Amino acid sequence: MKETTKQRYLSLSLSLSHLSYSTNQTSLKNAFSYFGKIAEVKIARDEDTKKPKGYAFVQYSSQDEAVLALEHMDGKIIDGRAIFVEIAKPSCKRISCYPITSGPPQPTPKKPSK
């Protein structure tokens, strides 16, 4: 079965959580570049304050590199905190998560009473 571009991207991306608010892109690149070529590091920030939210994403150029980093970095200490590392899950925009319908729910036919 052929992978879609989105599936391939997700298998290359790691989700990092429980990060220190002082963790920056440089410290993440330094810690994770040992396992392979990093395509991108994104630190989640609050839209209003621009302060880090304590989680980030690291994308590798190959799935093997991402898996290697996952196996070695989950639970490691970065900037004084033990981090959690997992394969990034697909993001779901709120509107697109709802099922597509063609109108309001149809009434269920009632069973005849005996």
From TrEMBL:
Coiled coil: none annotated. One of its GO terms (molecular function) is RNA binding. It holds the Pfam family RRM_1. Keywords: RNA-binding. Transmembrane segments: none annotated. Residues 12-90 form the RRM domain. InterPro entries: Nucleotide-bd_a/b_plait_sf, RBD_domain_sf, RRM_dom, SLIRP/GR-RBP-like. SUPFAM superfamilies: RNA-binding domain, RBD. This is RRM domain-containing protein.
